[in-house]
Automatic annotation (TrEMBL):
Belongs to the D-isomer specific 2-hydroxyacid dehydrogenase family. Residues 117-292 form the D-isomer specific 2-hydroxyacid dehydrogenase NAD-binding domain. Gene3D superfamilies: NAD(P)-binding Rossmann-like Domain. InterPro entries: D-isomer_2_OHA_DH_cat_dom, D-isomer_DH_CS, D-isomer_DH_NAD-bd, NAD(P)-bd_dom_sf. It comes from the Bacteria. Residues 14-316 form the D-isomer specific 2-hydroxyacid dehydrogenase catalytic domain. Keywords: NAD, Oxidoreductase. The keyword Cell division does not apply. CDD domains: PGDH_4. The keyword Plastid does not apply. GO terms for molecular function: NAD binding; oxidoreductase activity, acting on the CH-OH group of donors, NAD or NADP as acceptor. This is Hydroxyacid dehydrogenase.
Amino acid sequence: MRRRARRVGGGVRILVADGLDAGALATLRAAGHEVVERRGLAGAALAEALAGCAALVVRGATRVTAEVLRAAPGLRIVVRAGTGLDNVDLDAARALGIAVRNTPAANAVSVAELVIGALVTFERHLAAAAADLRAGRWEKSRYAAGRELAGRTLGLVGFGRIGREVARRARAFDMTVEASDPGLDRWPEDFAWVAPRALDDLLAAADVVSVHVPLTADTRHLLDAARLARMKPDAVLVQAARGGVVDEAALEAALRGGALRGAILDVFETEPVPPGHPLLALPNVLAFPHLGASTVEAQRRAGQEAAALVLEALADGRR
């Protein structure tokens, strides 16, 4: 029997363990709840902070383990303000009767814009050219061999919210778009212009492969050495989903050996990336510190959607 969370006046206590939009915090407080902000917690410290809390809001940094959940008997809901749920022990939450929700639509546009922007940056050598110019070097001729996106084939591994937003933007660049997503029961009617393909066929045909699937037991190292070997040697891989979907050791070998022309990485198997990570030393890699959702708009949407999910769960609990 799970104990009730501590009540504060007419509300309850909510722990926000990662950064959240100020408007979302105000929404929760305006509903009469006590909002406790504590960042950087893990393990026993997180469990201790959850004492008396009815709701927990996290982003990607906080790991919500089975031990943490078992130590919070009054907890009703965990909300991940963002897309992935790989930092929450879903089996433990289910067994304990704790609801788990996320905000998968909140950052779709921001991630899609990063993917297309990074692809243009990579193909036109914009980051290197800007660095040269800032250092006083006018290297126009060095970067004369950029490439256009128009007329090339984009293969999307995963065709959920983010994949579809990427497809819309790629279409505006006159790219041909194909997608692989065996989890879809029906192909979306408004995306009839996107060709469904089996994963291995898509990898072999695409000039650019962009990954947009969650990290699960089935998708861990989905793109391993064998799958990467199916790609064109002139192809570019974009990884803006979850670290672990791509086998980084296999990717490094493919890039070093000329089996792939390049890679754009916004996520890694270990974050923060440890110093000396071998992929960061490669000249044909453009990498970012997991910036996909890092826009004012995405943060605002994620926060407000998270607050709404918390309030809905707490209201249901009072009925």
